[in-house]
Amino acid sequence: MANRSKRGKLAILVGGGPAPGINGVISAATIEGINQGFQVVGFRDGFKWLAQGNTDHVMNLTIDEVTGIHLRGGSILGTSRTNPTKSESSMQNVLEGLKKLGVTALVTIGGDDTGFSASQVYRKAAGAIRVAHVPKTIDNDLPLPGSTPTFGFETARHYGVYTARNLAADARTTSRWYLIISMGRTAGHLALGIAKAAAVTLAIIPEEFRGRPVTVEEICDMIVGSIIKRRASGSEYGVAVLAEGLIEAMGEKGLASAIQGGQLERYGNIKRDDHGHLHLAEIEFGRMMKDLVSARLEKLGLKVTLIDKDLGYELRCADPIPFDAEYTRDLGYAAVKFLLSAEAAKFGAIISFVDGKMVPLEFEKMIDPQTNRMQVRRVNVDGEAYECACHYMIRLERSDFEDARQLAELAKVVSMTPGQFSERFGYLVGLKPARQ
Hints:
This protein has helices at 22-35, 48-51, 63-66, 88-100, 112-125, 153-174, 189-198, 216-232, 245-258, 285-299, 313-316, 322-339, 363-366, 384-391, 398-402, 404-413, 418-425; strands spanning 9-14, 39-43, 58-60, 103-110, 130-135, 177-182, 202-204, 238-243, 306-311, 349-354, 357-362, 367-368, 373-374. The chain has 436 residues and is an alpha/beta fold. It folds into three domains: 9-151 and 320-374, Rossmann fold (3-Layer(aba) Sandwich), CATH 3.40.50.450; 153-316, 3-Layer(aba) Sandwich (Rossmann fold); 397-436, no CATH class. The protein has a seven-stranded mixed β-sheet with strand order 3-2-1-4-5-10-11, with helices on both faces. The chain has a four-stranded parallel β-sheet with strand order 7-8-6-9, with helices on both faces. The chain has a two-stranded antiparallel sheet with strand order 12-13.
């Protein structure tokens, strides 16, 4: 039964890139908020207008308006990457706008950047506004307890697998190779999840390099090695999935050094957003890798048709699968429950679940004061889940070089002697120092 006591005004806003399930959080938080006596409003385009001192871009949310939207992709409130913490004036505009509108509780939906902005609203409001942040990203790279996913990841992987399987069928039919670049700024969860479930030929993620410098040359040789190994077994086709986080792992200088003449601009503009992140989508990483790999294959005398495919934007606003449709209702409901709890008067929090129970994670314990971000949750490359993925990939392995017959077959594909092949590719499996 609805609680008819007036609790003030609850506001909801969305920051960062889209992810399947945003509308589910908005819907559940709105319904529970109204049932608990709040007036609920939504800010359009995240912090964008508030940071400018504009309070006109706000809409009243009712149960009728949000009923059923949990099954739809996108965000009825839009989103933006505006960072209100970049300047004191922007942050002050946000606080004054919230005060002007009578907001006493705030639910933010976003990644670690929006989470930091939300934490600053809580801190600077000095208890006047209770804040709950619902973590969102298809990258699945936020440090939630255990193996709890960020919402949107499972849906993005689900539809990404369908795309990868279709491309694999096309590759097999036409005897070509596809290079898929999967979204994932700093972690390889989405790339690996798609590759493993779709049973593609090869996946390359930044975590497998264990923090050491990554070069474009090494990534290219890993792909070339996979192509050679497939040829040696009689297969002319394949699909490789690369995490876009490899771009940041290699860095701007590393990318430029691999381009003849250093003209990285041929593959896009190097830009950064309000939070200091490289605009990865501005760099045509797939086309660049296709060109570089093709050049290496040509030098080796191999004729291969390579097609690059970026995978990400078509996943972010997909209708959520049942997992995310259910999960986001839990998160929206729990966000309001936290805001009404005694703990919300003591700290702002990130909403998470463990064994079906809501666990609020304090901002101060989750956000690094040095980086203003949460610690990145990376793929555990020491676990059996990653070990299994590697065992079903086709890539050059140490055993390929230790088996004389296999080594000879690999070398034959590129008209080399076994010794020449080992000299050229042995560094990939630790038989010699990495190529510089």
